[in-house]
Automatic annotation (TrEMBL):
Enzyme class per UniProt: transferase
Protein name listed in UniProt: 16S rRNA (Guanine(966)-N(2))-methyltransferase RsmD
Annotated Pfam families: Cons_hypoth95
Entry EC number(s): 2.1.1.171
Molecular function (Gene Ontology), one example: 16S rRNA (guanine(966)-N(2))-methyltransferase activity
Organism of this sequence: Demequina muriae
Gene designation: rsmD
Keywords: Methyltransferase, Transferase
Gene3D superfamilies found in the cross-reference section: Vaccinia Virus protein VP39 (3.40.50.150)
NCBIfam families in UniProt: 16S rRNA (guanine(966)-N(2))-methyltransferase RsmD
Record-linked CDD domains: AdoMet_MTases
Length: 186
């Protein structure tokens, strides 16, 4: 079990899939959402949670004022956990769970997002992750924020033009990358 850290649902526990996912630690989620709060990136945001796992990142965003969250997760067992978590937290009216791989989902959707939270498996190939970022770019709203949580051991990633890295920070083996669509300011 893990918990929602702050906001309307703060302190509530959520289930995690029994295997196949790597839940974001409380310390990393606190750092991630502290920065997003500071950037005022949460209030009213349309959120995309890619490689959603338990849905903890998107549910945290909903707790802190996001309008809606789309959770994309390929594993059926994890998608069921996200659906159950959204129901338990009474957020089903603002949460949409999609059981699909990230790249095909991005290729077919016409939705746009203000905030994208990406937490892929650490062993995803850099070129596969770069393809996801490339497919994501046209789906970003003006001034959208993208946060990638990936291993600090990974090779340097190629980001698509227009998606500008504002900050990178390591938390043990985890590295958070904050980027903004069409911005060069931090």
């Amino acid at each position: 079990m893990t918990r929602i850290i702050a906001g309307d649902l703060g302190g509530r526990r959520i289930a995690v899939p029994p295997r196949g996912t790597r839940p974001t630690t409380d310390r990393v989620r606190e750092a991630l959402f502290s920065r997003l709060d500071h950037q005022d990136a949460l209030h009213g945001a349309r959120v995309l949670d890619l490689f959603a796992g338990s849905g903890a990142l998107g549910l945290e965003a909903l707790s802190r004022g996001a309008t809606s969250a789309t959770f994309v997760e390929a594993a059926a067992s994890a998608a069921r956990v996200i659906t159950a978590n959204a129901k338990e937290l009474a957020t089903t009216d603002r949460a949409r769970v999609v059981k699909e791989r990230a790249l095909p989902f991005l290729a077919r959707t016409t939705d746009q997002w203000d905030l994208v939270l990406i937490d892929p498996p650490y062993d995803i190939a850099a070129e596969d992750l770069a393809a996801v970022l490339e497919a994501l770019a046209p789906r970003l709203a003006a001034d959208a924020v993208v946060v990638l949580e990936w291993t600090s051991r990974a090779p340097q990633l190629t980001w698509p033009p227009g998606l500008v890295i504002e900050r990178e920070r390591d938390y043990g083996e985890t590295r958070l990358h904050w980027a903004r669509w069409g911005s060069v300011e931090s």
